[in-house]
């Protein structure tokens, strides 16, 4: 009888030990599964963030491709202005110069007043630019444009004037302003056609200067298309 009691006591202890072992294994398994689940959730969240990032990048790329495609089309639409016979085109810096005024000092010497004999030619050039911008605005209502009017100065034959002489910058700017004022006084309003106007003066400096210094007595214009956010729609 005593042997039988000892057996059941041992059996009970064994079962209790197995229960605790199973309990510990269960707790460890649950903890491991929770940790693994947390890691999986983090991986899923990271993947979702990566997918969203890729989608946004794809969207931006699509928008940018549309912009580049549109700008390429716009560049083709600039051909009529180049082929009008009224402007000389400088392809390296994409500027236009009035042919009839090339190599001519249209301003009084060291002044910013346009000479009387060149006023009509300058007005006519403004009208051509305005009509061209009207067509661009009609054909591309989703675009706006930046019209840069730049005044230039001619140096002496021996280049003795410093390229960075402040007087050259201020005078060339005032000459660009004189051209713009002449156009606005004659009802040439570029801003009515989704155009922003910027005036500047490069003085005796700047890119695309003519090798023949006398030909730098001029003003030039540049038309830059600006793509608006309408492509995002």
Explain what the structure shows.
It contains 4 helices and 5 strands. It is of the alpha+beta class and about 230 residues long. The protein has 2 domains: about 1-70; about 80-230, OmpA-like domain (60s Ribosomal Protein L30, Chain: A), CATH 3.30.1330.60. A 5-stranded mixed sheet has the order 1-2-5-3-4. The radius of gyration is 38 Å and the shape is rod-shaped. The termini are far apart. Mean pLDDT is about 80; it is low at about 230-233.
Structural class label: alpha+beta
CATH superfamily of the largest domain: OmpA-like domain
Let me know the largest β-sheet.
5 strands, mixed
Separation of the first and last Cα atoms: 92 Å
- Helical segment count: 4
Strand order of the largest sheet: 1-2-5-3-4
Strand content: 15-25%
Shape: rod-shaped
| Domain tally | 2
CATH fold topology of the largest domain: 60s Ribosomal Protein L30, Chain: A
Outline of the structure:
This protein has helices at residues 2-77, 79-82, 119-139, 166-185, and strands at residues 87-90, 95-98, 143-152, 195-203, 219-227. It is α+β, with helices and mostly antiparallel strands and 233 residues long.
């Amino acid at each position: 009888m005593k042997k039988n009691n000892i057996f059941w006591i041992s059996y009970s202890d064994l079962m209790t030990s197995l229960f605790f072992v199973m309990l510990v294994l269960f707790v460890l398994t649950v903890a491991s599964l929770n940790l693994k689940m947390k890691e999986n959730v983090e991986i899923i969240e990271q993947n979702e963030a990566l997918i969203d990032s890729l989608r946004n990048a794809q969207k931006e790329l699509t928008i940018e491709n549309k912009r580049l495609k549109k700008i390429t089309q716009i560049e083709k639409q600039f051909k009529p202005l180049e082929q009008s016979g009224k402007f000389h085109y400088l392809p390296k810096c994409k500027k236009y110069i009035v042919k009839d005024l090339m190599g001519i000092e249209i301003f009084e010497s060291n002044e910013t007043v346009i000479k009387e004999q060149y006023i009509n030619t300058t007005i006519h050039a403004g009208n051509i630019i305005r009509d061209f911008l009207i067509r661009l605005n009609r054909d591309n209502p989703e675009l706006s444009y930046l019209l840069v009017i730049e005044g230039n100065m001619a140096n002496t034959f021996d280049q003795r004037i410093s390229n960075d002489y402040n007087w050259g910058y201020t005078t060339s700017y005032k000459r660009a302003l004189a051209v713009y004022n002449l156009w606005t006084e004659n009802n040439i309003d570029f801003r009515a056609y989704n155009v922003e106007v910027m005036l500047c003066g490069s003085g005796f400096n700047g890119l695309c200067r003519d090798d023949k210094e006398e030909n730098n007595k001029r003003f030039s214009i540049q038309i830059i298309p600006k793509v608006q956010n309408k492509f995002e729609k």
